[in-house]
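Figure 2 data, in text form.
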Amino acid sequence: MGDADVTASSWKLVEVGRVALLSAGPHAGKIAAIVQIIDHKRVLIDGTSEKPEESVPRHAANLSYMSLTGIVIPKLPRGIGSGALRKKWIEHEVESQWNNSSFAKSRAKSIRRKELSDFERFKVMKLRKQARFEVRKTLAAAKASS
């Protein structure tokens, strides 16, 4: 029989050091790092943010209530303490990586859109109409000149 190499993709695996976005509970919308894997459904997470209102205390969380991100803190020891995790968090600039990710930007954009009032939605519609008109006008001028 031949040798078979079975390798999993390294994208969004549940691993110690992986940063996750919490989607439910009192800390929904905050990010935290996986510190320890408890079992196939739960992990121990800790989120030491620079802003106290965005910190997540160390607790066991269900994997079905979080979205794994592509951000990983490499070589993070299992069960690392909060102070040491904070140093690694700052060293690897986790918050800036998160804020610059397309996932975070699109999430912020959709949250902003949900908070618009009727008048603000009307203004957005009018601005989009004006932009569409300008694009069509320049396209028509380009077609006419060629």
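Caption note: The chain has a mean pLDDT of 91.
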